[in-house]
Design goal:
Number of domains: 2
Protein name: Topoisomerase DNA-binding C4 zinc finger domain-containing protein
Strand order of the largest sheet: 1-2-3-4
Largest sheet: 4 strands, antiparallel
Structural class: mainly beta
Strand content: 35-45%
Radius of gyration: 17 Å
Mean pLDDT: 85
Organism: Methylomonas albis
Low-confidence stretches: none
Region (Disordered): 44-64
GO molecular function, one term: DNA binding
Order of helices and strands: EEEEEEEE
Domain DNA topoisomerase type IA zn finger: 9-43, 58-97
Length: 102
């Protein structure tokens, strides 16, 4: 597969995206890697939407005392779509607290 830049621009740095393949399938990455590490999912041979980032709660992690509590959404498994609070230092700190329905 060729890694030629395409007509799609990186939403982060405005340099062209490249469609790549790994063991999980296709994805889109910035041709300016490693300076820009933007990655987008592949949706019908076009770049998909950027995944949402963790939302800060402004509170310190009660387990490690160093990280910050951040709100995230579960992406896989039977709890997919549910919200939880985790430490921003993950995987160094594995603090989690479920806030969605269980």
């Amino acid at each position: 597969m060729s890694c030629k830049p395409t007509e799609f621009d990186c939403p982060s740095c405005k340099i062209r995206l490249v469609r790549r393949k790994n063991r999980y399938g296709y994805f889109w990455g910035c041709s300016n890697y490693p300076e820009c590490q933007m990655i987008l999912p592949d949706e019908e041979s076009k770049p998909g939407k950027q995944r949402s980032t963790a939302k800060s709660t402004g509170e310190t992690c009660p387990e490690c005392g160093e990280g910050e509590r951040v709100e995230r959404t579960i992406r896989k498994g039977r709890r997919r779509g549910q919200t939880f609070i985790g430490c921003s230092r993950f995987p160094a700190c594995t603090y989690t607290e479920y806030v969605g329905h269980q």
